[in-house]
Amino acid sequence: MYDVIIIGAGIVGSSIAREISKYNLKVIVVDKDLDLASGTTKANSAIVHAGFDAKPGTFKGELNAKGNLMFEKLSKELDFPFKKNGSLVLCFNENDKKKLELLREQGEINGVPGLEILTGEDTRKMEPSISENVVAALLAPSGGIVCPYEMTIALAENAFTNGVEFKLGSQVNDIKKIHNGYSLLLNEDEVIESKVIINAAGLYSDVINNFVSDEKFNIIPRKGEYCLFDKSAGNFVKKTIFQLPTKAGKGVLVTPTVDGNLLIGPNSVNIEDKEDLDTTKEGLDYIIDKAKLSIKDIPTRQIITSFSGLRASNKNGDFIIGEVKDSPGFINAASIDSPGLTSAPAIAEVVASIVKGILKATSKENFIRERKGIVKFRELSNKERNTLIKSNPEYGRIVCRCEVITEGEIKDSIRRPLGAKTIDGVKKRTRAGMGRCQAGFCTSRVLDILSKELNIPVTKVTKFGRNSNLLIGKNKENL
Ligand SMILES: Cc1cc2nc3c(=O)[nH]c(=O)nc-3n(C[C@H](O)[C@H](O)[C@H](O)COP(=O)(O)OP(=O)(O)OC[C@H]3O[C@@H](n4cnc5c(N)ncnc54)[C@H](O)[C@@H]3O)c2cc1C
């Protein structure tokens, strides 16, 4: 029997796994998908919000600002990309200036440091691409950008190093209360048991909660669509540029990404299907039009792809966190919509302290705090590249030309603990396929490496698991 089962290997489940790996507990993370960070965590704005948006007194108000302040240290310990680039909320109308004031006051109550209101002129001095119509802006120096999937992988790898088990490709299909905990049905016929369950199942956290509790809730998927621009547009703005928030959320932003691209989006549309990640012409037109209000001459010809993500919202608007009253030992970290990525490290501390209290857990003396990521050939000096190639010639073979990703990096991404098993798994860990050609050149080579490394035929290699095989057989195989 496990002490703790965590359902969901997104940013929330992985943050919790790493946090409770500091205790002497037998812990396992299960996820229905074949890889880490396969749900909402893989597609969002990737902003480490400063924390002025959420109402004081809510989980969001408390945990966003707290989580933000944890990123600097975490990113150093776990070697994932994070940049404190700061953010601006633009105001286009003199009458709306008081809304900026309210945001600043709210932020200060939430504990956000350094908030300042700038004039339109000062804002344009800071960011010359900003529209002439801007009359003022709220500057938040603590706002940042991060790579959400690299962060999740880093947390999960470190949790694994500290003894947490991971069972990927295992869907929880039922949960029953037993005398000293819970029994979970995985896929069709596997049963595992645990004293404590943590529900970090994102869009499906309602289903998981509703298996055991009479305090039911309902997740409403809220879609957000994006356009991603080529790196040639990556310096268009330095800070993350928001507009004043509306009832629908934080609105359309324009931001550099931590990897040097430019990103615009999202819109905000409630939908029914939790798997519907299609982008739409109306959605993309909307975000482009909105982004044009903030920024002059947005280089739309540099858009290389579009994508969407689904927020796991509920009708009350706040995260659902805590031990469920009618189900002792069942803890929700549920309905974690935006700013869930930013809040995840703080959510993990709250959940870990509940777990510690229930199980009377003791601290591990030999907890390993640090983890090293995959080497980034593209970021090395020529001297460092030469040394690396001499020690392993696989680093001398470029597989993804757009992003300059080598065979050595791809093999490392597959071989390391919790390594990639799919094309998307390699992409999340190395960026192979994320460049201007959008995997046109490297897919076949990544597929070939995966087939050899995993010792499976090329026809069994998938894009993301399930039925996403790229090849189905040999051309003219009967000739
Ligand atoms: C458009 C958009 C923009 C956003 N922008 C930001 C932002 O800029 N900053 C920010 O802080 N936050 C942002 N967010 C929010 C942030 O992305 C989420 O809060 C966060 O990713 C949620 O992580 P999670 O781990 O709870 O969920 P997920 O990443 O969805 O993980 C849940 C996991 O549970 C697994 N699972 C589900 N059901 C089962 C089952 N039955 N059995 C086993 N496993 C199961 C899934 O496979 C999945 O891997 C944004 C979200 C969206 C959609």
Descriptors:
single chain; 479 residues; alpha+beta; five-stranded antiparallel beta sheet; 22 strands; binds flavin-adenine dinucleotide
Describe this entry's structure for a reader.
The chain is α+β, with helices and mostly antiparallel strands. It has 13 helices and 22 strands. It has helices at residues 11-20, 59-68, 71-78, 97-110, 120-126, 148-161, 205-212, 281-294, 340-359, 382-391, 407-415, 423-430, 443-454, and strands at residues 2-7, 27-31, 47-48, 82-83, 87-91, 116-119, 136-140, 144-146, 165-168, 172-178, 181-186, 190-199, 220-229, 240-243, 253-256, 262-265, 269-270, 303-313, 320-323, 330-334, 398-400, 405-406. Strands 1, 2, 9, 10, 11, 12, 19 and 20 form an 8-stranded mixed β-sheet that branches. Strands 13, 15, 16, 17 and 18 form a 5-stranded antiparallel β-sheet that branches. Helix 1 (11-20) runs parallel beside helix 6 (148-161) and helix 11 packs across helix 12. It is globular and about 60 Å long. The relative contact order is 0.16. Bound molecules: flavin-adenine dinucleotide. The site of flavin-adenine dinucleotide has 39 residues, from helix 1, strand 2, strand 18 and helix 9.
Brief digest:
This protein is an alpha+beta fold.
Quote the distance from N terminus to C terminus: 55 Å
* Beta-strand fraction estimate: 15-25%
Distinct helical segment count = 13
Radius of gyration: 23 Å
Q: What ranges have pLDDT less than 50 throughout 5 or more consecutive residues? A: none
Globally, the shape reads globular
Which structural class is indicated by helix and strand composition? Answer: alpha+beta
Bound heterogens, unique: flavin-adenine dinucleotide
User: Major sheet: size, sense and barrel closure?
Assistant: 8 strands, mixed
The count of DSSP E runs of length 2 or more, i.e. the number of strands, is: 22
Helix content: 25-40%
Mean pLDDT: 96
